[in-house]
């Protein structure tokens, strides 16, 4: 029986190849988009699940409140993890990670810049399961100056040599002995590292007693990623419930002194990648985008299925005689239903085969776009492949269900008499509803693409409060080279292509650091959290900050290097200084008893500038002179002289004894990099918008072909009675035009609502959704829609009426 259904389905496809191709193209497009998104979503949801005991591992995080100001961080104080393990028997193990931060390592004549080397506790392999290649993980990170390498890094430094016992050296002269090699981490790991250095190395460097201190003051400086592994049947909720007692014992003495409090947060390991919203975190994903892409995948499939429904119901008149004859010959309704479903299933599986071929061809491009390293082998995982086949069956049944049940319900007597008018009206209404829905989705995607692009333009063009153009940023990670920062700066200024240079703690996009400082109030000094940036005398001039009052630092003023600060206008406002801020006092560097440190005075207020991305609101920022060389050198290059300036900068870099390879970033590019996620979203939305419009147009193209074919005699009669080509064009265009306009009207409020939510949740500063973008999306939909049907409409309206009447 099934063989008979299959043969009949193939014959029907061969009888109408044009409509079959349109249907298969639509289904292929929908399934291809679905498979790509399914691979992406599957990867996003699989982060960290390769660790054997992942369900019992949590990352702990910090919430500080200082004078009613909240800050959440993914890192916690150094002693917090060990102290929690001491206090709570629910905790089986703890492990901490501290990034070595952009350092050069060498072995022999091989030297590489590394930014994914971490200090960690020796318990790391008890908490996180790794596949050992060489060595002994039980003792690998016990001794100071021990290092465990991933296979990729081991091969990079040592080739095919056995690396165990060999020593690599950092740019600062520290030596690390290789004790083990582990398999490379899977890409779906949220905390990515290439090498692990024993935490006891840091403890030995700063003094074990100081580093492992459980004194209250040690709990008020954050710095390490910390993970806890719980015993079976234990929960983090019990630890959170008892944490107030922990706070009272270890942290309250200092908290009360500085008018601050601390709260513990925790995130299950497998949720960190998609659900983290903490400062100082590693790059992570976004669960909102997983939801968005999942919804897009489903809508793409629905659109493709609607195409099939539309085409099948539109062609019901040509299939009705076949149905009537089959019923007269004794065919039952279930048999007819199975016949029509077999056709849609056949097309779905043809589309699936084509989709897999397309995915194979474009997977490398998709990886580049999504920042992934996905493989086609994922498709042939039994669970994954089963899911795709089930989806194909569902879409085939869904596509063919309405035409199958609709056509099989025709009464043979009515069919042979040609009296199915009621049914024709019903199917006409259904077709119109489906066309409206298709263009509704397409217009929403067009609006989304235009709004995302507009927001990106806003981010890149908004006045940041500083001049980002022609600024080269150098990272001075080498301690010895950094000590020469002043000499290096003077050497740079000898180049005729360099106008200015400045050494600083941070640059826009690379925050300095956050600290509690005493701020003058009417009756007392109040502790507040601020962002600090230390620099030499030339930083503000190089960045071209606009002064609202006061002056810049002056090297000729004897006290500016020790007693002067410059603040931004947000700081002045949040500090409650409603009048002039000049002369106000700020206490920096004091101990837990508010003793020591230095009292500095405000000498200037600059207009707000964005030290972070526009995802974040502007925070209070304090600028002051650094007595020590700092981590960044900013270089202002003469306009149009970048290449020549870079040559001179590299020569000065090497001339002054830098141990790490020359590397630089443009400040303008650093700003664009802050919105890399949005750039990818814009590209994906653009592609999806094109695909949704393409699917909708395929259906419209087929419908216009069939509609004009069905109305051939009507067109001929109208032309015989005097109708012009323009009259016929208006007649045929009008129906489709009205349907697209209805879709446009329905799409506007939905798109406006959802995109407003996205903008408000993702950015602190964002552009308003413009009415012009909405109108443009409607014009695009109407324009491409009418253009699509024009071939058949113009052909029908300009045909000879005699030929049209002969057609019938």
Report on the architecture of this protein:
The chain has 808 residues and is of the alpha+beta class. 51% of the residues lie in helices and 18% in strands. It has 28 helices and 25 strands.
pLDDT under 50 segments (min length 5)?
none
Largest sheet: 14 strands, mixed
Give the helix level as a range of percent.
40-55%
Overall strand count: 25
Rg value: 34 Å
Structural class: alpha+beta
Distance between the termini: 37 Å
**SS strand fraction:** 15-25%
- Write down the oligomeric state: single chain
- Mean pLDDT equals 82
Number of helices: 28
Based on Cα principal axes, name the global outline: globular
Defining key terms:
single chain, 808 residues, alpha+beta, 14-stranded mixed sheet, six-stranded mixed β-barrel, 28 helices, 51% helix, globular
In short:
The chain is of the alpha+beta class and 808 residues long. It is globular.
Strand-helix topology:
Elements: H1 2-15, H2 17-45, E1 57-66, E2 69-73, E3 76-77, H3 80-87, E4 91-99, E5 103-107, E6 110-114, E7 117-120, H4 124-127, E8 132-135, E9 146-150, H5 151-158, E10 167-170, E11 175-182, E12 195-198, H6 200-206, H7 208-211, E13 222-230, H8 236-250, H9 252-257, E14 260-268, H10 272-275, H11 287-314, H12 316-328, H13 333-370, H14 382-408, H15 412-417, H16 421-461, E15 471-475, H17 479-482, H18 485-492, E16 498-504, E17 513-520, E18 525-535, H19 539-543, E19 547-550, H20 560-563, E20 564-568, H21 569-574, E21 585-588, E22 598-606, E23 621-625, E24 632-637, H22 642-655, E25 665-666, H23 667-673, H24 676-710, H25 712-720, H26 725-762, H27 771-797, H28 801-807
Parallel strand pairs: 7-12, 9-11, 18-23, 20-22
Antiparallel strand pairs: 1-2, 1-13, 1-14, 3-13, 4-7, 4-13, 5-6, 5-10, 8-11, 9-12, 10-11, 15-24, 15-25, 16-24, 17-18, 17-21, 19-22, 20-23, 21-22
